[in-house]
């Protein structure tokens, strides 16, 4: 129980960082400067660049993902980050990246409130989040990335989503997930439409072919099942964002090499260090986040090496390497 509460809490330092950066946004014009610069705006939709979408409300975690990706990339000048956060965190997130450029990479920061099409009427997931705040807090994984440019050479075989399957692998704790681990098969809609033994796949690091996606009805399927789950009082699957995606992307997933996305660094301390070193992206999914006191000591350095502890905001919020 104590571990659960610790995992669900926001450390004082990270809360402080968000508040101080939000205050900086209102008082410092440089913290409000346009991201990216006007002359770089066309690159936000330039398909010759490598585009990464990062969705989070954790400013420190976002900085680690961006910093590790840029530092590890063989061609950082070809990277474009699209950081998406919530309305509450937007000002602080914008301030961080305005004051801490990631040159030569390009970055934009958007709040969900800035997307005109993203309304409660159009996207039922927002209704679910507003009705059940526990959904929002259930999963909040974090990543560290290595050079990912070869991802753009992966042939998805006409599929939409390149993902690591999680039903097979040496790690029986993390890599043993099938649909039965996520869905309530006593619910008739689930029992009649899904196979309990179907292999699950990992969210958190995915490669999407947007051209192929636009030819499908994935979005409509996703929203339809969310509505059904709301009607069923959220009893059709476990809390989290993965289960409805498992349904919506059914038949549209191409399995990629597990070394592209290593999971479980927040679940157990038996993670193989050599496998961590080989992985392209390491994912601290699970309760033991590296910024929490319950994080695993031998796995934390892979994350902390990308935290800028000399940054004034980080130091003044007493965020220290442990």
Written account of the structure:
It is built from 13 helices and 8 strands. It has helices at 2-8, 12-27, 59-72, 87-99, 124-131, 133-138, 188-193, 210-213, 218-231, 242-248, 273-278, 301-304, 312-316; strands at residues 50-55, 79-85, 106-111, 143-145, 161-163, 207-208, 253-255, 281-283. A 3-stranded parallel beta sheet has the order 1-2-3. The protein has a 3-stranded mixed beta sheet with strand order 6-5-7. A two-stranded antiparallel sheet has the order 4-8. The two termini are 24 Å apart.
Spans where pLDDT lies below 50 across 5 or more residues:
134-140
State the separation between the terminal residues, measured CA to CA. 24 Å
Helix content range: 25-40%
Order of helices and strands: HHEHEHEHHEEHEHHHEHEHH
Q: In this structure, how is the largest beta sheet organized?
A: 3 strands, parallel
Number of helices: 13
Secondary structure layout plus pairing:
Elements: H1 2-8, H2 12-27, E1 50-55, H3 59-72, E2 79-85, H4 87-99, E3 106-111, H5 124-131, H6 133-138, E4 143-145, E5 161-163, H7 188-193, E6 207-208, H8 210-213, H9 218-231, H10 242-248, E7 253-255, H11 273-278, E8 281-283, H12 301-304, H13 312-316
Parallel strand pairs: 1-2, 2-3, 5-7
Antiparallel strand pairs: 4-8, 5-6
Pathway: Glycan metabolism; pectin biosynthesis
GO molecular function, one term: polygalacturonate 4-alpha-galacturonosyltransferase activity
EC number: 2.4.1.-
Q: What tags apply to this protein structure?
A:
alpha/beta, three-stranded parallel sheet, three-stranded mixed sheet, 322 residues, single chain
